[in-house]
Amino acid sequence: MTEHSLWRFSRALHRALSERRPEDLADLLDEDVDWAIYGPIDMFPFLGARRGKAAVLDVVGQIADNFQVRKFERETVMLGVDSAASMMRYSLTAVDSNKPISLRIAHFVRFRAGRLLSMRVLLDSFDLVEQTLGRAIHLPKMVAS
Amino acid sequence: MTEHSLWRFSRALHRALSERRPEDLADLLDEDVDWAIYGPIDMFPFLGARRGKAAVLDVVGQIADNFQVRKFERETVMLGVDSAASMMRYSLTAVDSNKPISLRIAHFVRFRAGRLLSMRVLLDSFDLVEQTLGRAIHLPKMVAS
Questions:
Q1: What's the 3-state SS for A88-109?
Q2: Do the Cβ atoms of A108 and B106 come within 8 Å?
Q3: Rounded to an integer, what distance in angstroms lies between the CA atom of residue A86 and that of residue A144?
Q4: B94's torsion region: left (phi>0), alpha (psi -120 to 50) or beta?
Q5: Tell me, what's the pLDDT at A141?
Q6: Total-model pTM
Q7: Searching chain A, which residue's CA lies closest to the CA of residue B37?
Q8: What span, in angstroms and rounded, lies between the C-alpha atoms of A23 and A76?
Q9: How far is Cα of residue A96 from the mean position of the Cα atoms in its chain?
Q10: Do residues B93 and B68 make contact, with C-beta atoms less than 8 angstroms apart?
Q11: B80-125 confidence digits (pLDDT tens)
Q12: How many Cβ atoms are within 10 Å of B119's Cβ, its own excluded?
């Protein structure tokens, strides 16, 4: 039984991030890869949607420039034939400020011929903003009467 | 082949929300259900973690009091034997302000004997905050040099 594409991709992605060598991911990306990490792109220009291998390699490089992954833990994983979904917890360091950031993310991925074809990531973006700012944003309480 | 627990639970949850009858969900919740929707609980007190059937029924009632589901679309779904994960898009109305809110969420669920045992939900919480406020929050741009 061959290894699921998720594991190979995950190892390569984390190595590319830690060594700041996005180009090492090239062989694991479909030419037409569809990539999206939902979140506030005004603050984090490396979030948002990207299409195609070159754009994804570029954005992986930007993420590596901004965050160091200290550790990650996969809380839940579901594997399909050519797809996977996980809920993960990351401990990051913001490179700019040296601040520790703790982040939960959910990702849904699809592969074609062992290469990443599609990735969708959701994260608790408000929490990420507050941790990056290093302060709470005051919010009104919303409760319908 | 019997229907996956996800579909029965999803129908019941959406009906309970639209009819504001959380108690109708009681039979589909494990006594010890573990529930979490990650997001800013200062603004949305019905987000966060809940444990046990009574606490979950209570919080479903609070969600129903605050949001109406206009429609939802399941973009991705993965089914395991007693588990499931989906990425979904919701069109909601905030009951208090009558504002339309469009929200992408990811959920990971587990069932035991057909009842919900665990649910973890991630959403683009910054986007939810801005849509609820009805204005943008100014953010500095974070780019490491």
A1: EEEEEEECCCCCEEEEEEEEEE
A2: yes
A3: 34
A4: beta
A5: 86
A6: 0.94
A7: A124
A8: 28
A9: 18
A10: yes
A11: 999 999 999 999 999 989 999 999 999 999 999 999 999 999 999 9
A12: 21
B83 touches chain A (CB under 8 A): yes
Tokens of B98: 């009558």
Closest CA to A75 of B4, B110, B105, B82: B110
Contacts of B1 by beta carbon, 8 Å cutoff, 6+ apart:
none
Q: Cβ separation of A126 and B122 shorter than 8 Å?
A: no
Q: What angle do CA A15, B144, A35 make, to 5 degrees?
A: 55
Answer whether A95 touches B (CB < 8 Å).
yes
- B49: tokens are 């973690």
pLDDT for B56 beyond 70: yes
From the candidates B122, B135, B145, which should be mutated to test the interface with A, based on the most A CB atoms within 10 A?
B122
